[in-house]
Amino acid sequence: MTQAICIHAFGGPETLQFESVDVPAPGPNEVRVRHTHIGVNYIDVYFRTGLYPPAAMPFTPGVEAAGEVVAVGDAVTGLQPGQRIAYAARPPGAYAEERIIPADRLVPLPDAIHNEQAAAMMLKGMTAHMLLAQIHAVQPGEPILIHAAAGGVGLIACQWAKQLGATVIGTVGSEEKAELAQAHGCDHPILYRREDITERVRHFTGGEGVAVVYDSVGADTLMTSMDCLAKRGLLVSFGQSSGKPPAIEVGQLAAGGSLFLTRPTLFDYIGTAADLQHSAEALFDVIERGAVTVQVGQRLPLANAAEAHRALEARETTGSTVLIA
Question: Where is the Enoyl reductase (ER) domain (predicted)?
Fold first, then answer.
């Protein structure tokens, strides 16, 4: 038996129950892993509330963790017991001391990257790579807008974009978060609770607007994001922490200046083992070079996962939240 967070019914953080569970031996092309650190992400909230339905109930949430291989099934190559690994992968199941996971979803960790770093950055860091290099290749001198700039993805994306030479504008909810974002590459933090986002963006860009907006907030920001774009700009809606984004009429894209809109999910960009390895290597490279650092703002025991969710939904967190298994 091992311990895990289980959800028996959709709902609030109180549905996250710490229970004893059985973990079977790995089957063909599967690996049994023991977690040391587990990443908390907003996608976990989406699964908890039923916005993203799991394959079956009850289930264990979580798509990001680091630890070591315990056992491997038949036909598994390149992995062995005792090897340090990390992942950001579906199906959910990371909120557990141990689990079974497909072997091709695991990435061996370099010696220079420790487990807490990996659990705090795999999903968020590969998301940043997707945003800045694959969906839109950010160019030197290009102005961009990142919402939730002091969050887990935001802090990594601000640093990475700055390293690429972009002019980084970011929205934050407090003076403390503004200072944190600025220390991590955000040139122009905007306090969205008391400043007009569109007006400030136009000010920072000489009236032109930004080339791309990265919006993980959704309902509260999507229309403002469109207003911040330059002609032929790109709106990347990749989350909805404030609720479902409003519908956009096709004609609004034309009226805004021949705009583009995309709603990506990371798992479509790391769907093959080769794509996953490419993204992970890009992330490891910027971390090992010191171009990007990972900020862990909150650490809690696995049993306290409900507390982590409450803080995340209340926008009380900065950087990454990690559960200790």
Answer: 11-323
CA atoms within 13 A on the CB side of 189: 25
How many Cα neighbours within 13 Å face the side chain of 257?
15
Q: What does pTM read for this prediction?
A: 0.94
Nearest residue to 72 via CA among 113, 118, 111, 104 = 104
Q: Within 13 Å and on the Cβ side, how many CA atoms surround 233?
A: 25
Q: Which residue has the tokens 């689990």?
A: 99
Short-list 176, 262, 156, CA closest to 215: 262
d(CA 63, CA 77): 22
Q: What CATH number was assigned to the domain covering residues 140-263? A: 3.40.50.720
Residue of 42, 8, 47, 18 whose CA lies nearest to 314: 42
**Residue 40 corresponds to which amino acid?**
V
- Provide the pLDDT for residue 15: 98
CA distances 190 to 120, 145, 155, Å, are: 25, 10, 14
For 305, the token pair is: 């996962």
Domain boundaries, the chain: 2-121+270-324, 140-263
Which runs of E-coded beta strand occur in the chain?
2-6, 17-21, 30-40, 64-72, 84-88, 98-102, 107-108, 143-146, 167-172, 188-191, 210-215, 229-237, 260-262, 296-301, 320-324
Quick one: tokens of 20?
């004893």
User: Nearest 10 degrees: CA dihedral of 279, 281, 283, 285?
Assistant: -150
CATH architecture of 2-121+270-324: Alpha-Beta Complex (3.90)
